[in-house]
Structure formats: structure tokens, C-alpha cells
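PT: before anyone asks, these are the final sequences, not the draft ones from last week. 412 residues across everything. Please model them as a single complex and drop the result in this thread when it's through.
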Amino acid sequence: MRGRNLGVLISGRGSNMLALHDAIADRRLRARMAVVVSNKASAPGLALAAARGIPTAVVESRKGQSRDEHDARVGAVLEEAGIDLVCLAGYMRIVGASFVRRFQGRILNIHPSLLPSFPGLDAQKAALEHGVRVTGCTVHLVDEEVDHGPIVLQSAVEVGADDDVESLSSRILEREHDLYWRAVALVLDGRVRVEGRRARIVPTTA
Amino acid sequence: MRGRNLGVLISGRGSNMLALHDAIADRRLRARMAVVVSNKASAPGLALAAARGIPTAVVESRKGQSRDEHDARVGAVLEEAGIDLVCLAGYMRIVGASFVRRFQGRILNIHPSLLPSFPGLDAQKAALEHGVRVTGCTVHLVDEEVDHGPIVLQSAVEVGADDDVESLSSRILEREHDLYWRAVALVLDGRVRVEGRRARIVPTTA
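LR: through. Structure below.
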């Protein structure tokens, strides 16, 4: 990766975006948050980002517009901001193949399960309904299938006998906040080598 | 569960069978290993069980015999031995629907992945090829689908950058040996309540 400019895509609170920004502010993560883009003007994360002085943009869907057309507008905003890495952070739209190609190998997503278990929406609920004892979260490179690309980092979270969707989701989210910035750092430091569907972490070349 | 007699089905080394027997010998697990059954006369675990004084039996497949016919012979051996709980331990045959019904809710299996990820054969290899960072093992009640029934216990194992199938399998196996007896104890103590596809662990009623 040449530079260390992040573009973060959100649709809601943007808590993972804020956790990434905290990591930057605390100097755990050497990067710059160049822009936060939401597909919803009402996303609470937008105001929170703006309050921290992060540039923000809204790219709302337009009636009759295709996925690729929407993605192209988002891509233009990201390139205008000079981003090096795209971080999906609770972005509730599927990004299309042309977007994936445009930012090939430079899009990360965080998902609240140990993929390949429980891809898609409501992963925490699905895990509870399946009755697993261990779930967790995954940061992966985005490819053309949903919640599917090479895995950068995962962290396991135990499911308690008394867990409901809310308690489990909140414990996983806490873990996400500590996982995403580590994965971003690995990618920015050029330590993630994709080989087929696997992402290998290579040692630091000090 | 009325009694505490285990019937263990193996096809190979039977290391999980031996670990269960260790737990009984150490009084971690209050149970009796009533019989070890192998579908292969050459399974090394048979001699190891016999050397410990555990009754053993061989039920080999016969040409032209259906799965149900084979399972019925195994079931007869298990019932003859008065078993209360069937533990599959590296048993390389799929047990059929009539066997599952015969021992309804009284068959456990251990599988070297965090189900529902990587069911079936070579789960450790599949996990490595998928590039997961976390895998593990699962003890579950057996239903009519392979590696599918209600999960009793799971344990997570981290995948290292240098892991190969052998090193990963061996680390998972070590974890299996510490997981299976705990799950057996929960079932024998009547602490596992199946609700739909979930197995709930209920507190001890001292």
C-alpha cells in the first residue's frame, strides 16, 4: 500500500469508524481518516465524524440507479479524497463487482461472526439460533461474494447460556473495535499477502 | 439419562476414546466404558482399549449390507452392553436415521472444527485452505444430518501463520481430549436440554 489514507463507509452509528479513529488518535494506528461516506444522510456516525473534524460525504441511493452507478459515485468521492484503503464499517449496501475491481485488494470489511459461519445479515442472531458456543468477528478483504474474501484477522467470543442478541452483539462489537484497527495496520504495512483465497500475514521487515 | 454406561464407536487410534477413559480413571468423569466398538478389526484403538480391560467388539461391514443393517448390528452390541450414551470417536461411518432414532438424544460426536463451519471430512485442511484465523472443535448431539445436531460444547483454537494440517490437527486434537469428557458429563448429569436445534446447558440441581 503506498499511502495510509482511509475512506470509511458507514450507514449508521459508525462505531467501528469511531474505534478506527480512536486508534489513529491514540497513535496505535498510523493512518489518516481522509473521508467518511454514508449512504444515508441520517446516519448518526456522520455528525460524530464531523465533530471530530473528519471530512464527510453523503452518497444516497437514487431511484432507478443501478448498483454500479451508485458505487461509481462513491468511488469518485473516495478517489477525490485520495484514499488508499476502503474500510466498510456497518455499510448496509453490497458493493458491486466494478467497485471491488476499482479498489482491488484495498477494501476491508468487518463482520460479526467467525466466517465462513453466519455470513449475511443478523449474524449474531443466526449464531444464537444455531446454538453455537463460540462465535466472534472477522476482518476480511472484500471480494465479489458477500462476506467471503480472504480473512485477515478473526477473534473468538464465547456465547454464554444467558446471552440474547443484544448482549452477544455488544460483546462482539467491543471485540470488533479492538480487531479492526489491527487488521488495517497489517494491510497498510504491506503485511497481508493474498494467495488464492487465503491472506497470509508476513513478518515485519524491520 | 438413567445410567452412566458409555459405548464408544471408533475406526482408528481411538485417541478420544482413550481420553474419555483417562477422564473416567482420573475420576473427572463419573461413568463406565461398557464397550468399544470398531467397524475395522485393524483399528489400533481396539487393542489399546482391550489392554485397559475395556470390553471390545468388531462390527465390520459386509458386502451387500445396507447402512441400516450394519447399524442394527452395532445397535445390538451396544444394547447388549447396556449402554446409556453412544460416543462417536473418530468413527468413519455415517450413522443412519434408524440408528439415530434408536438412540434418540443419546449419541454424541466430536468434530474438529467450529461447526457449522467445515462439516465433513478433513475439516482441519478445509479450515486452513479457507484461511481462517480461528477454528476449534465441537461436541454435538447427533441428528440425521452429518455434523449437524445440537451443539453441546465448543472450544476455539487459533490458527498460526506457520500451521500445516498436521500441526493444526494435533493442537485441535489436544483440545478435543479436554472437551469431550466435559460434554459427556453434562449429558450424563441431565444438564443438556434440547430445544429445537439448540442444546441449552442448565445449572446443576445440587
